[in-house]
Every structure is written in C-alpha cells, then in structure tokens.
Amino acid sequence: MEAAEPKPPAGADAARRLARGCWSAFWDYETPKVIVVKNRRLGVVYRAVQLLILLYFVWYVFIVQKSYQDSETGPESSVITKVKGITFSEHKVWDVEEYVKPPEGGSVFSIITRIEVTPSQTLGTCPESMRVSNATCDSDVDCVAGQLDMLGNGLRTGRCVPYYQGSAKTCEVSGWCPVEDGASVSQFLGKMAPNFTILIKNSIHYPKFQFSKGNIEHRKDGYLKRCTFDEVSDLYCPIFKLGFIVERAGENFTELAHTGGVIGVIINWDCDLDLSASKCNPKYSFRRLDPKHVPASSGYNFRFAKYYKVNGSATRTLIKAYGIRIDVIVHGQAGKFSLIPTIINLATALTSIGVGSFLCDWILLTFMNKNKVYSHKKFDKMADPPTSGPSQQNSTLSDPRGLAQL
C-alpha cells in the first residue's frame, strides 16, 4: 500500500479561507441603510444644524475669510523717512541735523524733544553721583581705592570729598568730570515740535502674485510740497505732522515730550487681488508701544556726546536726550482666487453637513422614548450560522428568506 499523503495543518487552511474572504470582501460595495423618522422636533434640530453649518461656511469661511483665495502674508517692504522743521530752546535754534537720531531716514528714528546737557567734561577726578549705590561717605575709610562700580561714573580713588552742593560727601572717582548729576542743565525743544513734518515713503511687493505698490501718488505738479495726510482726500500723501501722530496715538504731546516715548506707525496693506489694483490701499494706525504705566521703564531717553579740544585737552559735552521714537511697522496680506483652496473648502463644507446626522442619531438613540425600537431598525445583527453538513449549509444559503436575518 502506498503511504497516505499528509494533510495540511488546520491553521494553514483557516488562513487561506480568511485570505480568500478578505480578497472577496475587498470588491464588495457597501451602502448605508436609510431610515426615515417621522418626528417633527428631530427634523427641526436636523435642519437647524445643517443651516448653521451652511451659514458658517458661506458667510464666515467664504465671504469673511475668503478661503477660496490663495493668500500671502508679510509683504516685502521698504521704508524711507524724512523729517523737516526747526525749533528752539532757551539757548539756541535747532534744525533737523541736530534733533533727529539717526539721520539716515530709516524705519526707526528718534526726534529729540528735551535734553539734559553736562558741558565741558574733562578727564580728571571729581565727586561721584549720589544716585550711585554706596557712593555717600563720611571719611576716606568708606571709599575703597580701585573699586569700579558698573553703574557709576569712574574708578574710585579712595578719598571722600564734598559733593557739588550741600553738606553731603561722596567718594571721589577718576573719569569724565563733572559727573552728569553735578552740572547738567535741562533744555526743552518741544515748543515747535508738533509742527514737524514726517514723510514716510513705503513700497511693498507680494512676490507670489508679482504685485507691487507704493503709498505715494504719482504726480508731477509738486503735490507733495503742499499736501498733508488725510484719510479721505489725501490718502496717498504720506506726510504727517508729529502732533497729529501723537494725538492719534491717544497721548498728550507736552507730557510725552518731557518723558519720551515710543509711537508705532502701523501701515497695513490688505489687498484683494481679484479686484483692481486701485482697491489695494494702505491703512494707517497709530499707538504707543512702550509700557507707559510701568514706572520702572516708562519713557524713552538715550545719551550721546560731542567731543572737541580746549587748550589741547580732550573735552566733551554730554547730552542725555529725551524724545519721541517713531517705529514704522508694515504688514499685510494679499489674496487671489485659486481652484485648489476652493475645492478643499467646498469638500470640507459638504462633509461638515454630515455633523447634523451624527447629532440627530445621538439624540434619537439616547434621549427618545422609543430609542430601543429605533436602534433595532437602524442596526441589523447577523448571528454566526450553525455548524452543519454541506446539505444544510446549501439549503440555508439558497433560502431567500435568510436575507431577513441581515
């Protein structure tokens, strides 16, 4: 007798059946079962949710956000500024070259409105400022020779000397003398400052759309020499009076001129490039940028010195300047119709309408009185067929009424 062929293991046979079943199921088409529920309240909720979703996409997404457009934020920008005007203090007349720092005409510059001048400082020894910590003393023992205070005005010599005025004494330092607090004189430059004019020339470019525009009107009749900015009549005349900028920022000019501060001139270019280029216009706004209500850091000031020679000795005039710093900030966004974002947002809108069905199904199966009946109608359950012979399996599969179990 020939040896019987070995039977394949049961696990391999089951794996083949599973693979054939998966392959067959891959080509099946599935469609959801539709049940019509005659319930007016549920129907009102369903249509209301659909309407809200539709209004959100039509009004907010497509009209307000313009999501049918391809967009670009942050335009390439250039800013050129120029200040004009003269003013005077108690001692002299000041022109642009003296009160504007730096003079290059960039997007950030300062207009000096008050100064504290310490004239004729020379290298030598003198009393330290009383504002410096541990500067006051009673005798030379209180002063350590060679000590250097990073917030002070020089290297201590080790001697305790009388202060510039009064009976107090401070440690002597070697540096530029006299120190600032001992001989400074205040001068106010802000009397004519509100009438200073500031030209802000701005050009922007959106590289994605190859769109460029500037904020100055192209005219050859000397228009810029006789105009000042007005939102209605002279939008493309970017010449602003300093007093106008401070007022629009909500500040008091006299107070700001004494303490100093930072004002932002914000130019916003929001352009809908589906419209003509004439509809893309700059929008100006003004606000104070530095922390006004924080005493420790309010105001704005800086120091600089002018050096010269007196009888061959190095001499300087130290100036502590208070002023109004102008920061020109440019931002914007451009958009133009594009098919890809339109299709994406339409598909999202159509898909989101299905949220109404999900919400109503949840209400139907959770809170309705006949939720078990609805659950039975909505979900069909099929039990595993009993294990039997081939004839019984064939009869079960051939019985059309067996579909009632699905």
UniProtKB/TrEMBL annotation:
<comment type="subunit">
    <text>Homotrimer and heterotrimer; functional P2XRs are organized as homomeric and heteromeric trimers. Homotrimer. Forms heterotrimer with P2RX1. Forms heterotrimer with P2RX6. Forms heterotrimer with P2RX3.</text>
</comment>
<comment type="similarity">
    <text>Belongs to the P2X receptor family.</text>
</comment>
<dbReference type="GO" id="GO:0007274">
    <property type="term" value="P:neuromuscular synaptic transmission"/>
</dbReference>
<feature type="glycosylation site" description="N-linked (GlcNAc...) asparagine">
    <location>
        <position position="195"/>
    </location>
</feature>
<feature type="binding site">
    <location>
        <begin position="301"/>
        <end position="303"/>
    </location>
    <ligand>
        <name>ATP</name>
    </ligand>
</feature>
<dbReference type="Pfam" id="PF00864">
    <property type="entry name" value="P2X_receptor"/>
</dbReference>
<keyword id="KW-1071">Ligand-gated ion channel</keyword>
<dbReference type="GO" id="GO:0007528">
    <property type="term" value="P:neuromuscular junction development"/>
</dbReference>
<dbReference type="GO" id="GO:0009743">
    <property type="term" value="P:response to carbohydrate"/>
</dbReference>
<comment type="function">
    <text>ATP-gated nonselective transmembrane cation channel permeable to potassium, sodium and calcium. Activation by extracellular ATP induces a variety of cellular responses, such as excitatory postsynaptic responses in sensory neurons, neuromuscular junctions (NMJ) formation, hearing, perception of taste and peristalsis. In the inner ear, regulates sound transduction and auditory neurotransmission, outer hair cell electromotility, inner ear gap junctions, and K(+) recycling. Mediates synaptic transmission between neurons and from neurons to smooth muscle.</text>
</comment>
<dbReference type="GO" id="GO:0004931">
    <property type="term" value="F:extracellularly ATP-gated monoatomic cation channel activity"/>
</dbReference>
<dbReference type="InterPro" id="IPR059116">
    <property type="entry name" value="P2X_receptor"/>
</dbReference>
<dbReference type="GO" id="GO:0070588">
    <property type="term" value="P:calcium ion transmembrane transport"/>
</dbReference>
<feature type="binding site">
    <location>
        <begin position="82"/>
        <end position="84"/>
    </location>
    <ligand>
        <name>ATP</name>
    </ligand>
</feature>
<keyword id="KW-1003">Cell membrane</keyword>
<keyword id="KW-0067">ATP-binding</keyword>
<dbReference type="GO" id="GO:0043235">
    <property type="term" value="C:receptor complex"/>
</dbReference>
<feature type="disulfide bond">
    <location>
        <begin position="227"/>
        <end position="237"/>
    </location>
</feature>
<feature type="disulfide bond">
    <location>
        <begin position="271"/>
        <end position="280"/>
    </location>
</feature>
<feature type="compositionally biased region" description="Polar residues">
    <location>
        <begin position="389"/>
        <end position="398"/>
    </location>
</feature>
<comment type="function">
    <text>Receptor for ATP that acts as a ligand-gated ion channel.</text>
</comment>
<dbReference type="GO" id="GO:0001614">
    <property type="term" value="F:purinergic nucleotide receptor activity"/>
</dbReference>
<dbReference type="GO" id="GO:0048741">
    <property type="term" value="P:skeletal muscle fiber development"/>
</dbReference>
<dbReference type="GO" id="GO:0030432">
    <property type="term" value="P:peristalsis"/>
</dbReference>
<dbReference type="GO" id="GO:0007605">
    <property type="term" value="P:sensory perception of sound"/>
</dbReference>
<dbReference type="GO" id="GO:0050909">
    <property type="term" value="P:sensory perception of taste"/>
</dbReference>
<feature type="disulfide bond">
    <location>
        <begin position="143"/>
        <end position="171"/>
    </location>
</feature>
<dbReference type="GO" id="GO:0001666">
    <property type="term" value="P:response to hypoxia"/>
</dbReference>
<keyword id="KW-0547">Nucleotide-binding</keyword>
<dbReference type="GO" id="GO:0014832">
    <property type="term" value="P:urinary bladder smooth muscle contraction"/>
</dbReference>
<keyword id="KW-0813">Transport</keyword>
<feature type="binding site">
    <location>
        <position position="320"/>
    </location>
    <ligand>
        <name>ATP</name>
    </ligand>
</feature>
<keyword id="KW-0406">Ion transport</keyword>
<dbReference type="GO" id="GO:0003029">
    <property type="term" value="P:detection of hypoxic conditions in blood by carotid body chemoreceptor signaling"/>
</dbReference>
<dbReference type="GO" id="GO:0005524">
    <property type="term" value="F:ATP binding"/>
</dbReference>
<feature type="transmembrane region" description="Helical">
    <location>
        <begin position="44"/>
        <end position="62"/>
    </location>
</feature>
<dbReference type="InterPro" id="IPR027309">
    <property type="entry name" value="P2X_extracellular_dom_sf"/>
</dbReference>
<keyword id="KW-0407">Ion channel</keyword>
<dbReference type="GO" id="GO:0098794">
    <property type="term" value="C:postsynapse"/>
</dbReference>
<dbReference type="GO" id="GO:0016324">
    <property type="term" value="C:apical plasma membrane"/>
</dbReference>
<dbReference type="InterPro" id="IPR001429">
    <property type="entry name" value="P2X_purnocptor"/>
</dbReference>
<keyword id="KW-1015">Disulfide bond</keyword>
